Amino acid sequence: MDSVDLSVLKKLLEWQACNFPLWLVTVVETFGSSPRPKGAMLALRSDGLSVGSVSGGCIEDDLVLRAQRGQLPVDQCVVLTYGVTHDEAMRFGLPCGGTMRLIIEPANNQDWIEQALRLIQAHRLVRRTLHLHSLKVEVEDASRTDNFSFNGETFTTVFGPRWRLMIIGAGQSSAYLTRMAQALDYQVIVCDPREEMRQTWDVADCVVMSEMPDDAVLAIQVDACTAIIALTHDPKLDDMALLEALKSPAFYVGALGSKTNNAKRRERLALFDLSPGEIARLHGPVGLRIGSRTPPEIAISILAHLISVRNSANSSNEAKLTNQEICS
Question: How big is the CA angle at 291 (ends 287 and 296), to the nearest 5 degrees?
């Protein structure tokens, strides 16, 4: 989950020590254009304080007003739909034809929040199911194939690090990339067999591995929700990781370096058991071309490219699903 939604759960847990009625607001359905995706959350307090976002701001203003006026129930869920008419869509700042449906649930004294946060902190993926009529909540371990679902009576959402980023090298660029990636829904794994580099690593909440890069790539059992970026500047270490990464299902494999260095890298990789198609998967130079030079700029260019690749893949999968639905 991204840092915005994580802050919602943390704030709800903090507010439970107060005597204010609390609600968790979740986007469960969208039609047409929508400012926030399904699963986006807002923590709301009866005095009008809120954390998170379900729209561009106008819907939040309406929810705050309802909470302050005592118009939200404290013992049952309520489903609200915004943007049904053109006038309402304009009033709430929704894009053309946009409609969104929200579930508003009481969130006082909910033990599941503490349980979910504890599991997320342990880098575990969490599936949370709410039964609307009974307010019963179930929290279980989830897999990366689990998705958000809503059938009118129950809805299920997934919390935790749905995406993984393995970084080869524990240098300065890696530190910036790790911190920024953690805010973008990534569990970060840093591999560096050089003890002197690991000793100066100071980024919290990530996994640090000392294995040789090829062994580390094999050890984490790479899946289609994993990206692997080589940043050591040492061909021996970077190439070892790439030899395994390019054969894996990773959705993105990249390496730092100039065009010339990466051309030489591809020549070296061709000497091993990699096919031309596997070598062609390498993003090198890594990241988008934005003229980045400093470590934080390099980190931004890499993450921008990851966002682009992820969103393109999601759009492609949605298009395939739509075509399947039409054919059926």
Answer: 65
